[in-house]
Amino acid sequence: MKILKWLSVLATLGMVFVLTGGALVTKTGSADGCGDSWPLCHGEIIPSEITPELVIELSHRLVSGSMGIIVVILAVLAWKKIGHVREVKLLSFLSVFFLVAQALIGAAAVVWEQNDFVLAIHFGISLISFASILLLTLLVFEVDKKFDAKSLFIKKKHRMEIYALSIYTFLVVYSGALVRHTEANLVCGSWPFCNNTAPLDLANYSLEQWIQMGHRLAAGILFILALTASLRLISNYKHSSVMRGGWILILALISLQVITGALIILTMLNLGIALLHALIISCFFGLLSYFILLSSRSAKYEREQ
């Protein structure tokens, strides 16, 4: 069990590097750092010409490949050791499936030129892979009795709220990825409006500006939904440390997400802040996924009564 815990933590942290590495590739324009060949760079085992873009792209490929091996080992070991837990086998399959899907989409983007709207799916797939691995890790620690979530029952109306918030979050994540892939990060020089001196002057917006402002509007709505859901669930489940602590953390993460989103514009796309922005939404979605898992348990319990 000790090995499984260490391996699950390593896989989760490694997936954080995969996610931020993918964001780094996009934000630094390093997607073509290895040319149009995959998995080799420019068709060479040892590249003859080293550029910063090549180093970033190749590093991302190496980290992703290494994590693929670790995730497969984790999935097999979890299946064998704690496969009796209801969700483990499905999560083991999903963690490997979506990691492979992520790699194939990344490879296709390198070998064949892809539409920006298709490329934006890549981050969403990576997010599902990360969430699956994070949930496996939480289940490992739950089995080891590091915290108690089995006794928690979430009411149906609150389960529906969690499901809806999670689906909407995924759509907002897609819109954010679309902003990056269409290079629309800095098409609006002001915040929160594209032009604070004329906020309603929409007639001359370019496609990129509509994408940027669409993402800001969607993110603003997400903040309001997450805020109201957090306050309601914290109030209704004061007896549960898992619900109370989890939703306080969710509220903190969505607040930080809004702050870093504004700072990206105000700092003219500071790379560190941009990567932190991608990391925070990944953690936010991962936590929501855990509450989806807990909600599904409550729904199963309700059906059996």
UniProtKB/TrEMBL annotation:
Its EC number is 1.17.99.9. It is a multi-pass membrane protein. The keyword Metal-binding applies. Catalyzes the conversion of heme O to heme A by two successive hydroxylations of the methyl group at C8. The first hydroxylation forms heme I, the second hydroxylation results in an unstable dihydroxymethyl group, which spontaneously dehydrates, resulting in the formyl group of heme A. HAMAP family: HemeA_synth_type1. It is found in: Cell membrane; Membrane. Pfam families: COX15-CtaA. Coiled coil: none annotated. The keyword Transmembrane applies. Keywords: Cell membrane, Disulfide bond, Heme biosynthesis, Iron, Membrane, Metal-binding, Oxidoreductase, Transmembrane, Transmembrane helix. PANTHER family: HEME A SYNTHASE. This is Heme A synthase. It comes from the Bacteria. The chain crosses the membrane at residues 62-79, 91-112, 118-141, 162-179, 217-234, 246-266, 272-293.
